[in-house]
Design a protein that fits this description.
- This protein has 4 helices and 2 strands.
- It has one domain: NAD(P)-binding Rossmann-like Domain (Rossmann fold, 3-Layer(aba) Sandwich), CATH 3.40.50.720.
- About 45% of the residues lie in helices and about 10% in strands.
- By secondary structure, it is mainly alpha-helical.
Length: about 90
Amino acid sequence: MVHEWWGLNAQIRGIARKLAQEGYVAIAPGATDTAMSRSGSTADEWKKREAVPPLMGGLTTKEEIVGLVRYLLSDPAQYITGQTFFLRTAK
């Protein structure tokens, strides 16, 4: 899995160099708490998964993703380009 992330990072940085004025970034949220990710899980399984912090293999919330996107669209982030933002890491 790690090797795929290195490939993604290289692609994003390459695009950002060619189109720096566009401000390309990548957001890698990992598993996200959505209705689709909940399907197939029992209530007990889901409770256990919710208890795990995102950086320890748990779920990222939609609100966390939206918070990062809002920041990246704000004036303080206007010069950020070619970066990949990981909201969680693989187990």
